[in-house]
Amino acid sequence: MPELDVYIYGMTVLSTIHLLKDKFPAADGYQEIVQTYVMPGGEAANAAVVLKNLGLSVRLDGCLMGEQTAKPLTEYFTMRGIDCSLMTYRGDFPGWRDIVFSDGASRTVFGWFGNYLFGEERLWTRPSEEAVRAAHYVALDPFFPDGSDHVAELCRQYRTDYVTIDCKWETPMAQDARVLVCSQEFVRNNYPGVDPAWLFEQYRQVCGGLLIFTFGSEGVWYASPSTRRKTLAAYEVKVVDTLAAGDSFRAGVIYGLMHNMPDDEIARFASATAAMVCTRFPSVAEPPTLEEIEGLMGKG
């Protein structure tokens, strides 16, 4: 395999995304839909689109393609120059899909993920050992039973650094990552009532790489094992859609690693990447350029 910048193993779905006129309604309520798009989504797909637009070569893997998803996903990724040849097609499966409602400040997702991930069938690919060995960096989603852990094992075997998201601090995947990014949503759902500052310190003590907690408009915390926690305020932008902010943040981290940025610069670049993505709908349909990201950083 030719040299590869980033191997991405994770969540790729076909998303139906609705932009609402106002806030998501309460039970028995109503809200007007302003725009609708059908396009790739998921942590892996969104990161791939952003990274490719920033000039990196990416190979996408993870979810199986199905009857309803194979053609639109393949056409979209091929048009953008993203290699999705590892994403195996399965004809008796509709494919990974979701339905998303975005009101600008928040997004609400409906899907079949519990059934797909924890059902009787394995609906994701076996990781590519060759791709892990060839890649400069791996973007790894932790969601797939046995598949995600296998990628982490391959990274350790071939000494390929990986960037992952939303892992509990007790797990080897979190502890061995070159960068671990935990979202506010993950922390809130998995550690309810726990002081985030205390939790951050537990992570920092056992994680061997750069640790980042993201808090949306409240900014980020970050630290390496040898440094104290630092804070970075969020960039001020007009938010239109927050759907792929976290996915784009990780893409910004990987771009920073590829260009040997120090930790402070990685945090700033990733934050600016996520902020730029929030200024448009649907978020990564028009991914940010390097000039846009650096321009926003210059204003901060």
Number of domains: 1
CATH architecture: 3-Layer(aba) Sandwich
**Which stretches of 5+ consecutive residues score pLDDT under 50?**
none
- What is the terminal-to-terminal distance? 40 Å
Beta-strand fraction estimate: 15-25%
Number of helices: 11
Regarding CATH, which class? Alpha Beta
Record the strand order, biggest sheet: 4-1-7-8-9-10-11-12
Strand count, sense and barrel status of the largest sheet are: 8 strands, mixed
Helix percent reads 25-40%
Average pLDDT for all residues: 95
- CATH homologous superfamily placement: Ribokinase
Number of strand segments: 12
**So what's the overall shape?**
globular
Q: C-alpha Rg, in Å?
A: 18 Å
Explained architecture:
The strands form two sheets. The protein has an eight-stranded mixed β-sheet with strand order 4-1-7-8-9-10-11-12, sandwiched between helices. It has helices at 43-53, 70-80, 113-118, 129-134, 147-158, 172-176, 184-190, 196-206, 245-258, 263-277, 290-299, and strands spanning 4-10, 13-20, 33-41, 58-62, 97-102, 107-111, 135-140, 161-165, 179-183, 210-214, 220-223, 230-232. It has eleven helices and twelve strands. The mean pLDDT is 95. The radius of gyration is 18 Å and the shape is globular. By secondary structure, the chain is α/β, with parallel strands linked by helices. It is 36% helix and 23% strand. Helix 9 (245-258) runs antiparallel to helix 10. The chain has one domain: UDP-N-acetylmuramoyl-L-alanine:D-glutamate ligase (3-Layer(aba) Sandwich).
Show the helix and strand layout.
Layout: E1 4-10, E2 13-20, E3 33-41, H1 43-53, E4 58-62, H2 70-80, E5 97-102, E6 107-111, H3 113-118, H4 129-134, E7 135-140, H5 147-158, E8 161-165, H6 172-176, E9 179-183, H7 184-190, H8 196-206, E10 210-214, E11 220-223, E12 230-232, H9 245-258, H10 263-277, H11 290-299
Parallel strand pairs: 1-4, 1-7, 2-5, 7-8, 8-9, 9-10
Antiparallel strand pairs: 2-3, 5-6, 10-11, 11-12
Helix pairs in contact: 1-9, 9-10, 10-11
